[in-house]
Description:
- The protein is mainly β.
- The protein has strands spanning 2-8, 13-19, 33-40, 42-47, 50-55, 59-62, 68-72, 76-83.
- Helices cover 0% and strands 56% of the residues.
- The strands form two sheets. It has a five-stranded antiparallel β-sheet with strand order 1-2-8-3-6, with no helix packed on it. A three-stranded antiparallel β-sheet has the order 5-4-7, with no helix packed on it.
Amino acid sequence: MRRQVLAYNQNVMLVRHQLSKGWKGTSHKHPHEQLVYVVSGCIVFEAGGKTAELRRGDSVVVEGDVEHRAIALEDSEVLDVFVPYRSDYAQ
C-alpha cells in the first residue's frame, strides 16, 4: 500500500491510496468521518459489521469511530477524504 496526501487544511484532507492485489488492511477505527471512492480496481470493504465489494466509481461513507478495513481483490486506487484532517497523516 502506498499513501499520498494530496491536499489538506485543518478541516479536511484528501488522500490517495494505491493498493496491490492481495493487500489486506488491518481493522481499525478513528474519530474522523471518511469518504471512500474507488478510482480503479476492486476492493472488499468491511465497516460496522457489513461487507461490500466496491469497484471503480463506487463510494461509501464511514462514520467516525466505526471499525473498518479494506482488502484489495485487484490492484486498486482509492481516494479517501477525512473530516477533520488526520494530523497523523500530515507529517
